[in-house]
Amino acid sequence: MKKDLVSINDFNKEEILHILDMAKKFEANPDQNLLNGKVIAVLFFEPSTRTRLSFESAIQRLGGRVIGFSEATNTSVKKGESLGDTIRTINQYSDMIIMRNPLDGSARYASENCTVPFINAGDGSNQHPTQCLLDLYSILQTQHTLDNLNITFVGDLKYGRTVHSLVKAMTDFNTTFHLVSPLELKLPSAVKYYIKKNNLPYFQYERLEDAIPLSDIIYMTRIQQERFADPMEYEKVKNSYILNANMLSNVKPNMKILHPLPRVNEIDISVDATPYAYYFQQAQNGLFVRQALICYMLGIEV
Amino acid sequence: MQDNYNKKELKVSALENGTVIDHIPQGVVLQVLRALQLEDFNDAIYLGSNLDSHKMGKKGIIKVSNKFFEKEDINKIALIAPSATIIEIKNYEIIRKTKVELPDEVIGLVKCINPKCITNNEKITTKFIVQNDLDEVQFRCYYCEKTMRKEDLEFL
């Protein structure tokens, strides 16, 4: 059976650890001619900087070739072609399909319409599993383990898909969850479901300061004004979830701060120079993880 | 006279062989019919609606001649008619009586609540995974992965 990665749950713990292990080898040596001219379709129906370019860089550093588009406007989608038909066609031109699409669930549907391996590069507000893999890799590289960690998620826990995927993935590793958010943006019960199902401890906070000293990882996200029905509510909370260097006086020495980027103001630039900032290396890890994932899906061992 | 009248009524409603779906909540008889894909069925089907019921006040009933359902098929109606009883009849005798149970998956029966879901934007058969392991039953869309509660369900 062909391999697909639509949701992080499509991979079991062993597969995830295997890919992270492969990523370490690419971090040591990112330029390897392993794809040997294979053609990979990179289809972006909506804009992206990091995800698309890191996928394309990953392919090209491995000696593969890229076909595709970075917006749907100059394709037959514009003429009203269905996603199913588009994918069935491109399936015949490529050895693998990587897709980002604004509709939720489009990735699962696309994966059912192709016979080559499929990677979801983000389907609307649903899943972004390669972000999750690079988050996991960043945690592993900074903590040297994924087991028994205290992970603090901060900001928009209600709509943040990266938070949802990472929470789900971390339930395999005996994590203690610290959830910091305004009341309006609490982690949805559909995601807490996975924590409860695994009988793991979780604590909810409205004050960021309360969770900082307990954390091995602080995973920051952006709070968007449009998420609030009442603008007054936004004004009340907008500055409560901004991390600055002064707040880091009593942290664990191993603590690292992650952020899926782009950030706006939720991590003050004063944090960038501290030893706790890891978000830029995190973005770079996306390259190694995507190299590992592509090789794994094509059955290429390193 | 009285006897004959009763017999006549029995003739219309009694099945020799087939399945009776009893205790259908009032108002969803046609939905049940559709869910079981009986619209193109060739043999006799009797429908009853607004019938008096001890337990339910009013109820609906469907009798399908010479048809016995697979468990997965019959469980599809658990969403629409959770109170339904399935009675299987051979030679006018009741051979089995069961209650419907929630299936593991619901395919092509309900609409996803999420307007941004691909199933609401392209012609795709919907599919939901039934999550029955916490306090409340939830339905997770196989495509967009959003979960719905029972009261959110909208039938196609």
Molecular structure report:
The complex is a heterodimer of chains A (302) and B (156). With 302 residues, chain A is α/β, with parallel strands linked by helices. Chain A folds into 2 domains: 4-127 and 286-297, Rossmann fold, CATH 3.40.50.1370; 130-283, Aspartate/ornithine carbamoyltransferase (Rossmann fold, 3-Layer(aba) Sandwich), CATH 3.40.50. Chain A has helices spanning 13-28, 50-61, 83-91, 106-112, 129-143, 161-170, 189-197, 208-211, 231-237, 279-297; strands spanning 4-5, 39-44, 65-69, 96-101, 118-123, 150-154, 176-180, 202-205, 217-220, 256-258. In chain A, the strands form 2 sheets. A 5-stranded parallel sheet of chain A has the order 1-5-4-2-3, sandwiched between helices. A 5-stranded parallel sheet of chain A has the order 8-7-6-9-10. In chain A, helix 2 (50-61) links the parallel strand 2 and strand 3. The model of chain A has no long low-confidence stretch (mean pLDDT 94). Chain B folds into 2 domains: 2-99, Alpha-Beta Plaits; 105-155, SH3 type barrels (Roll). Chain B starts with a helix and ends with a strand. Classes of the chains: A alpha/beta (302), B alpha+beta (156).
